[in-house]
Design brief:
Layout (H helix, E strand, L loop, with lengths): L2 H5 L2 E3 L6 E3 L4 E6 L4 E4 L9 E4 L3 H7 L4 H6 L8 H25 L3 E3 L1 H10 L4 E4 L11 H6 L4 E3 L3 H7 L7 E4 L2 H18 L3
Parallel strand pairs: 7-8
Antiparallel strand pairs: 1-2, 3-4, 3-5, 6-9, 7-9
Helix pairs in contact: 4-8
The protein binds zinc ion.
Length: 198
């Protein structure tokens, strides 16, 4: 099927019952033995899927009564909201890591402050990602970022980026690819929504 058609597909959130574009929703599938409901962030696991807004509130509504059993048309172990939220957050984090590694393979990322400062000066930077715990000496010049109107987000830890790129603590990254930047922002926004206590 043509990708643009697929992206325009409309689904109903199994929690609040509102209609929504498929891509804005979190897909859930049944997996394992005994069968349990798990998130499918990539949206490509086989079998019947159920869609829900990536929001705690909607996941909670979906788990009421035996809606899950009805939606999947089979007996499944009904997970807790925390199970689903935690697993979805893990999957989003892995997805972000994969996007960062893809950016590195394509040489569309600057890792750590010196490289980021250089990228801001020379290339068209699409996104700055600053670690939540970035120490001051690891941060790029916020003036330069603001002056050039570069989008920036705060996510992840110095240690996790250091591990991902096989070096010491990394406080900041610059993404040079627009598509990858948009996918990362989308995943980070979903994490934030899911983590919210609503
Ligand atoms: Zn909903």
């Amino acid at each position: 099927m043509d990708r643009t058609v697929r992206n325009a597909e409309i689904r109903t959130c199994a929690g609040c019952r509102q209609k929504e574009g498929r891509d804005a929703l979190l897909r859930l599938v049944v997996s394992g033995d005994p069968p349990r409901v798990v998130p499918d962030v990539r949206g490509c696991a086989p079998g019947r899927g159920v869609s829900v807004h990536p929001r705690r509130r909607c996941v909670q509504q979906m788990l009421r009564g035996n809606r899950v059993q009805r939606a999947f048309r089979r007996g499944v172990i009904s997970p807790s909201v925390d199970n689903i939220v935690t697993e979805a957050l893990n999957q989003y984090c892995r997805r972000i890591e994969q996007l960062l590694l893809a950016a590195r393979r394509n040489r569309r990322i600057a890792v750590a402050r010196d490289a980021v400062d250089k990228a801001i000066g020379g290339h068209s930077v699409e996104l700055i990602i600053e670690a939540v715990d970035a120490s001051e000496r690891h941060q790029p010049s916020s003036n330069a970022i603001a002056r050039r109107g570069i989008r920036s987000v705060v996510f992840g830890s110095e240690e996790s980026y250091g591990r991902l790129f096989g070096r010491g603590a990394v406080g900041v990254l610059a993404i040079l690819d627009r598509g990858i930047a948009e996918s990362i922002v989308d995943a980070i926004e979903r994490c934030a929504k899911l983590a919210e206590d609503s």
